[in-house]
Amino acid sequence: MNAELRAELRARFGKLVTFDVPLARFTTFRIGGPAAALLDPQRPEDVAAALCMCEDLGLPWLALGLGSNLLAPDEGFHGLVIRLGKGVGATKRAGPEGTLWTVGAGLPTPLLARRSAVAGVGGVNRLVGVPGTVGGGVFMNAGAHGQEFRDVVRWVDLVAPTGVLSRVDASNIDWQYRSSGLEGIVVAVQLQLEPEDPASLQAALRRHLKRRKAGTPFDRPCCGSVFRNPDAGTVPERAAQFAEPLTAGKLIDAAGLKGFRVGGAEVSTMHGNYIVNTRGASASDVLAVIEAVREQVLERFGVTLRLEVKLIGPGDAKGFYG
Description:
The chain is of the alpha+beta class. It has helices at residues 3-13, 44-57, 109-119, 134-139, 198-215, 248-254, 283-301; strands at 17-22, 34-39, 61-64, 70-71, 77-83, 91-94, 100-104, 121-122, 143-144, 147-148, 153-159, 165-169, 185-192, 194-195, 261-262, 265-267, 275-277, 310-311.
């Protein structure tokens, strides 16, 4: 990024923007080279102004929450990273029995799960183990243990790539498995939750969190699930040996790939659909592991694993990734 662009960003956003910031500090993989510029917006209008500026200048941008569900490049990101955090993470309750929750995109999903359970409203408490923000969760329709964001979203406040801020009704969103079809940056959402017994909700939350911790490398640098689970209708006969549901983790485990490593990147010995950064892994290490896993699973079982993790290029990414 040249000095003129830096000066324009500094003039518009002041101390909210910093330069040459390592992305490894802001991703759950702890991988990624420097972002040319990083913005810490304090309100939705900051996000709108940033995207309008990027549109005018032809500057690549990337929206980031807690940095899960993505692999940042070793060479860094050559544009503007918009990191949504506390500045756009406020929560407001309204409606009968406090069941309408308006939530800022920067609020961590586990925190939403805990707060809603304590308040005695259900619908998102099972998402306590989802390692991302609410905005990223809605953008990718994150889910866990039978709950997905599309089940509770009423509307989304979205900043389009052109910088225009608008409200999108949930009925106009193209919800799919781990996708919303939205383009731009989610800055706020309204959720319709349901009254339930707080003690029961909190007990269920603890059970799901315990299960998550016991079955995944919860406390190690990783991105979450690397591959999507195969669609039932696309599974070839030689993979029919597995008990339903067929998951990417089962296939990787059956291929004997747990513990497979390239450099500092390793297929988790706890869960086959997680790649962990054991120490000092690079993005190229992770990509090599991904390629080897896909090749082995395809050769053994005839299943082509599709990525759930988003692979970010140095200057070609536009989206909100967790």
